[in-house]
Specification:
By secondary structure, the chain is an alpha+beta fold.
Length: about 700
């Protein structure tokens, strides 16, 4: 029997919709919830999560679907649900309190607040009942109720102390330095990553192991800047291990969220849009740097997964796919040997099982008992050359047979109950995917990918972009909402910058500049850096600035990258002044753990390299213009910024980059003008001379 819906039924968030028929009397975040807390003299129970969060599902099944727990919550708290992906400002704020109180964080995030929003207790997942050293929800609620009723002043005093401590930490964090950081910061981050590199399995540290592609992007830039081959080796070894492990979906492509072990074998099965975007960027750049086809193939495979499963009819990108289906984590993705034999001819089944580590007893073991489950996670069990030699096959013949097997298994898997797709469209995540598509399109000279990127950019700007000079954060169906945050502006600007350098439409560069200037206007701190929320946004306990990179680069890291790149493309010194202030603010945070700021250091590495600006002057559609662009983009040259000055129609680009007005083609032939540190070389029509001038 279906339960009566609660207030969340009217919310557009898929995560809030998941809880709309819980017996808990949920409120969305807003004035109504806090007014009820004051009127009923109850604390707020704040629960923050997201639609594809496995442990959020577990806590819902155990507690929020339980009639007794729900009745207890209705009696003693005002319950508020927040989608962390819709409200990253609230998530960041209350996660900071959780980390201050407990030393750790995660989702679901559970916080008790006073009716004026001050937190006095925080944690993450709580089971229904206490046991094995963990406090359960029932006991937790009862303890909080007792404290609220009998020791109210101590609770309020504790909340005030915690708020003061967190405010002091934020006020003192990242104090601006007198100088911008330099090569010492880059060397410290390189050394830190090298010290934690897992030479046997790839990646950094032990289990659990996350992709962290921004670490790889930093190491690639340091390889280019310094020639240190060890940087490239760490990147290549990591990406190879990830692609061949269970953390990569060998049947349907795409990267899962992370590996629960050090070997990249057993994944946490969520698939996040931002992981796909950042991993594509890392693979594209690694292909440019190394020339290894495996990295190009991996990038194209991930983009095929995104096209098939995460792309909306408008060409925008959904946020994630769940780890669970039918209430079981990973059920959609695992296989029994018998299933594979039933779907493939006998010889092909034997070959596939051998190549992808499929065992009769199963290679996927229960985490609690260690016993085999009878199911398998597909992974590349050995190098293809060994499998091919044992079967007397050439590598191409082996690849073709395995691909035919994969397609049959994929078709069969599509008939299973799919994990939930979180189909909300977020500006920041879409900006990252736009950047990834644009990078791949120009590196691989792929017009289809460029068209996908252009479609996405146009749709983003139409539905979420700069209405009245402001961005919106979320689109679901035809409902757009939530004021844009720093990451929305920074990531969209990044995507537009990358797409401009792929298709050379000055309108895209203009929109990138407009978004960046709006970011400065609404988020900049006069002392340097950018706040997460706009100055005229909702008034919260703290207005935060975050600098360290988490699963994705911080908004401040991306902002630095965008500001420095746009300065080099346009020559606008005001953008570089903001970048300098931001860099000095970063300098105060770098000493303790420099690799935590890897994407900021990407921008710094490019600045400290002998960078160059290249203007290609010529007919945009002519083969010789294309030849110059291809020569640039087939190489790994992250320090090079490129614009196109079209013959006969230079006004649009000159309005953005005045220096380009006089950089013309030579004798009607496409020409490259290479400039470094304010000094330009004579133009050349020869791609090889251009590359020589760039040290490529």
């Amino acid at each position: 029997m279906s339960r009566q819906a609660n207030r969340l039924i009217h919310e557009p968030s898929p995560y809030l919709q998941q809880h709309a028929r819980n017996p808990v009397d949920w409120y969305p975040w807003g004035d109504e919830a806090f007014a009820a807390a004051r009127a009923e003299d109850k604390p707020i129970f704040l629960s923050i999560g997201y639609a594809t969060c496995h442990w959020c599902h577990v806590m819902e099944r155990e507690s929020f679907e339980d009639e007794d727990i729900a009745a207890l919550m209705r009696a003693i708290v005002i319950a508020v649900k927040v989608d962390r992906e819709e409200r990253p400002d609230l998530d960041a704020l209350y996660m900071s309190f959780c980390q201050a109180m407990t030393g750790r964080g995660g989702w679901p995030l559970t916080v008790f607040l006073t009716p004026d929003g001050q937190p006095f207790f925080a944690g993450t997942y709580f089971p229904k009942e206490s046991g094995y050293g963990r406090t359960g929800m029932r006991e937790l609620l009862q303890r909080v109720h007792m404290a609220w009723k009998s020791n109210r002043q101590a609770v309020i005093g504790n909340a005030a102390q915690i708020l003061a401590a967190v405010r002091e930490r934020f006020d003192g964090a990242g104090a601006a330095a007198d100088e911008t950081p330099g090569e010492a910061a880059l060397a410290a981050a390189r050394n830190e990553l090298a010290a934690t590199f897992d030479a046997q399995n790839g990646g950094f540290g032990g289990a659990p192991k996350f992709p962290a592609p921004h670490n790889l992007l930093f190491l690639l830039r340091e390889y280019r800047r310094t020639g240190n081959g060890e940087c490239l080796r760490m990147v290549c070894d990591t990406l190879r291990a990830m692609r061949r492990g269970g953390v990569f979906d060998q049947i349907g492509f795409g990267f899962h969220r992370y590996s629960t072990d050090a070997h990249w074998f057993v994944p946490h099965f969520e698939k996040m849009l931002y992981d796909q975007a950042l991993c594509v960027m890392a693979c594209v750049e690694t292909w440019q740097a190394s020339g290894e086809e495996e990295f190009k193939r991996t990038a194209l495979e991930v983009l095929e997964y995104v096209r098939r499963d995460l792309t909306s009819p408008d060409g925008l990108f959904y946020s994630a796919e769940d780890a669970d289906s039918e209430g079981v984590e990973g059920k959609f993705y695992v296989w029994t040997a018998a299933e594979i034999r039933s779907l493939l001819p006998e010889a092909d089944a034997a070959l596939f099982c051998e190549a992808y580590g499929i065992e009769e007893a199963g290679n996927f073991h229960d985490e609690a008992t260690g016993q085999a489950t009878g199911t398998n996670i597909a992974y590349v069990a050995e190098p293809a050359a060994e499998t091919a030699a044992r079967h007397g096959l050439g590598l191409e013949a082996l690849a073709e047979r395995l691909e035919q097997c994969r397609l049959k298994l994929l078709a069969a898997r599509e008939k299973r109950v799919r994990p939930l797709c979180d189909d909300k469209i977020l500006t920041d995540g879409n900006g990252l995917m736009l950047a990834a598509l644009a990078k791949a399109a120009r590196a691989f000279d792929d017009e289809g990918l460029a068209a996908r990127a252009r479609t996405a950019a146009d749709a983003l700007l139409e539905h979420l972009g700069l209405e009245g000079g402001r961005l919106l954060h979320r689109l679901r169906g035809d409902v757009a909402g939530v004021a844009g945050m720093l990451d929305d502006y920074a990531c969209l600007a990044w995507g537009l910058v990358e797409l401009y350098q792929t298709v050379f439409d000055p309108a895209l560069l203009r929109r990138a500049v407009d978004v960046t200037r709006a970011m400065v206007a609404h988020f900049a701190d006069a002392d340097g850096g950018f706040f997460l929320s706009p100055g005229d946004g909702e008034s919260l306990l703290l207005r935060q600035k975050t600098f360290y990179d988490a699963a994705v680069p911080s908004g401040n890291s991306v902002a630095f990258f965008v500001l420095t790149t746009l300065f080099r493309l346009t020559g606008d010194k005001a953008l570089m002044e903001h970048a300098d202030r931001l860099a000095r603010r970063f300098a105060g945070s770098l000493d303790e753990r420099p690799s935590a700021y890897a994407f900021f250091l990407c921008g710094l590495s490019q600045l400290l390299a002998p960078g160059a600006e290249v203007t290609i002057a010529g007919d945009p559609d002519a083969p010789d213009t294309h030849a110059l662009a291809r020569a640039l983009y087939s190489r790994y040259l992250p320090e090079v910024a490129v614009i196109l000055r079209p013959d006969g129609d230079a006004e649009n680009i000159a309005a953005l980059a005045p220096y380009a007005r006089y950089q013309q083609s030579v004798d009607g032939r496409a020409s490259a003008h290479v400039c470094r540190a304010g000094s330009c070389q004579p133009p050349t029509t020869d791609p090889q001379i251009m590359l020589k001038l760039l040290g490529a």
